[in-house]
Design brief:
It contains eight helices and eight strands. It has 252 residues and is α+β, with helices and mostly antiparallel strands. The C terminus is likely disordered.
Length: 252
């Protein structure tokens, strides 16, 4: 392996390794998802204790050995303490971290996904937008980032501009009201279509600047669930925990 002195990223997960080490998974702009070993990070006096805790964001200094990367140090720019100290926020953060891990790849640069995850964690850190809505925005924009989200600006059947209609789970595409009339579809009202197009096209900095009613959020949730079932290879543990905690729409 070639040494890469610094990478910019977010800690996705951290687990004990050996007697005193930690096995840390990072999502990085430069290398995508990578695993590094933090030697001695489980010792209370280690300078690596705080930098290996999800969802820390910063610059990580790594070195390459014969078979693994080693974490030499880090400069953390955001520990997201508002998330770490709040159980409800932590549950949603665990979900978006696990979903990011499921969709990211080793040695594939992931600056777009890293940006999305960073702004999503910022949204979870503050009051104002419901955490359930943050979750749905993240899911749909993640699918766009990975190239698997359909186009919600036009009907997939007739090509007409889409204002309202339905989402066909067989085609995995939206249909206008006329084309959806004789088919079994998930409903998409005007607000839901507008929401979808905002999520898929807005600058990432402006993703979390709106609110919708529960009906519109529910329509978006049903579409997101259908798309995730198609694109996820396995159920997420954090999705099951969200469902147990009360988010009945949680993907499991």
């Amino acid at each position: 392996m070639q040494d890469l002195p610094e990478v910019n990223g977010i800690v996705l997960s951290s687990a004990p390794a050996g007697e005193a080490d930690r096995r840390v998974t990072l999502l990085t702009a430069e290398m995508g998802k990578i695993t590094v070993f933090a030697r001695g990070a489980r010792r209370p006096t280690s300078p690596l204790v705080g930098v290996t805790r999800p969802p820390a964001f910063g610059t990580f200094r790594i070195s390459a050995g014969h078979s693994a990367y080693t974490l030499a140090g880090a400069e953390i720019r955001n520990h997201f303490e508002e998330i770490v100290k709040d159980m409800d926020r932590s549950l949603y953060a665990s979900y978006v971290l696990e979903l990011s891990a499921a969709f990211s790849h080793e040695n594939v640069p992931a600056s777009d996904l890293l940006n999305l995850l960073y702004y999503t964690l910022r949204a979870l850190s503050r009051d104002g937008i419901p955490k359930t809505l943050v979750r749905r925005v993240f899911e749909l924009r993640l699918l766009k980032t990975e190239g698997t989200a359909p186009d919600f600006s036009v009907c997939a059947s007739c090509g007409a501009p889409l204002s309202e209609g339905g989402f066909h789970t067989g085609l995995m595409q939206p249909l206008c009201a006329s084309c959806a009339a004789e088919r079994e579809v998930l409903p998409l009202g005007k607000s839901a279509v507008y929401m979808m197009n905002h999520i898929l096209s807005a600058p990432v900095q402006r993703l979390y600047t709106f609110s919708v009613n529960r009906e519109t959020e529910g329509q978006a949730a049903a579409v997101a669930d259908a798309l995730l079932r198609l694109n996820l290879e396995y159920p997420l543990k954090s999705g099951e925990l969200l469902a147990l905690a009360g988010d009945q729409d949680a993907q499991g």
